[in-house]
Amino acid sequence: MSPAPIALTCGEPAGVGPEIAARAWAALGPALPFFYIGDPRHLPAGTPIIEIEAPQDAVEASERGLAVLPVDMGPPARPGQPHPAHAPHVVEIIARAVDLARSGAAAGICTLPINKKALIDGANFAYPGHTEYLAALAGVDHVVMMLACETLRVVPATIHIPLSEVPRALTPASLERTIRITHDGLRDLFGIEAPRIAVAGLNPHAGEQGAMGREEIDWIAPLIERLRAEGLSLRGPSSADTMFHADARRLYDAAVAMYHDQALIPIKTIDFAGGVNVTLGLPFIRTSPDHGTAFDIAGTGAADPTSTLAALRMARRMADLRASGAPA
């Protein structure tokens, strides 16, 4: 029996998602069967479209064209100009993909970018973003965002908040939760039996023995030591400016950073086009390209599919690992 295919949600139809989906099939074909959930009329002209009735049809359909589980989203899509009528369908398509993944009909989900403002304007979307909506659909209280490429995996302990709010938002409980979810994700999704995690300090030079801040001394280092005593392989708190060169990266499987830019600057420097957003802590596999809707280039053919290709391949590897029953 063929493995279940990956579900690729359409994201914002006025963005680069539809053209990237078409280019992903052109690059992967039957080698990595996936199916697009969205309106086939929104795909670029000339795309070989095979409409399917069920996910399992995607395996055979991928031999001949882009498998599409069709959804009538109403008005046509105009690149760079989101239509409010599309927004409720975008939200419903994400929920449908989750149902398919949880039932086993889809091996995992790869989500093309959404535009939060378009969803608020057209569907009163009440979530900060994709990840929070997926967590709500799954009934999960806490998830973790990982950015991954071939040579680096990073997890920001705090995400889209002002830098001035980071010290208040970062607590022993939240950091411990992030570390534990990261540890479990490395085992369950990446097949790393004994994950090694490096933890950054909050302050420059990890506080430099209290001269530049006391968070490392007062609670970050004690938390790391307590978790290390439980058997977790942890390093840190380490100075973030020395954690990401090639020799340092060989010492860990993932790095937990304290705030958004501390995590994302190194991975986007190392592999700007190929980074993948992975959500850890969900009961199903979810990956996403690490870029937005790019309204400014939508419809021009200039969108780079590299990150989406990497996200689909990573979802497939994770699904195959789970299916194999490989020990974690």
Automatic annotation (TrEMBL):
| Needed cofactors | Zn(2+); Mg(2+); Co(2+)
Keywords per UniProt: Cobalt, Cytoplasm, Magnesium, Metal-binding, NAD, NADP, Oxidoreductase, Pyridoxine biosynthesis, Zinc
Kindly give the Pfam families that the UniProt entry links to this protein: PdxA
Q: Which Gene3D superfamilies match?
A: Isopropylmalate Dehydrogenase
Residue positions binding a divalent metal cation: 160, 205, 260
**Cellular compartments per GO CC:** cytoplasm
Q: Name one GO molecular function term.
A: NAD binding
Q: Which reaction does it catalyse?
A: 4-(phosphooxy)-L-threonine + NAD(+) = 3-amino-2-oxopropyl phosphate + CO2 + NADH
Going by the entry's taxonomy, the superkingdom of the source organism is recorded as: Bacteria
Look up the EC number in the record and give it.
1.1.1.262
One BP annotation, GO: pyridoxine biosynthetic process
* Details of cofactor binding: Binds 1 divalent metal cation per subunit. Can use ions such as Zn(2+), Mg(2+) or Co(2+).
Q: What does this protein do?
A: Catalyzes the NAD(P)-dependent oxidation of 4-(phosphooxy)-L-threonine (HTP) into 2-amino-3-oxo-4-(phosphooxy)butyric acid which spontaneously decarboxylates to form 3-amino-2-oxopropyl phosphate (AHAP).
Q: What else is known?
A: The active site is located at the dimer interface.
Q: Which family does the record claim for this protein?
A: Belongs to the PdxA family.
- Listed PANTHER family: 4-HYDROXYTHREONINE-4-PHOSPHATE DEHYDROGENASE (PTHR30004), D-THREONATE 4-PHOSPHATE DEHYDROGENASE (PTHR30004:SF6)
Q: What is this protein called?
A: 4-hydroxythreonine-4-phosphate dehydrogenase
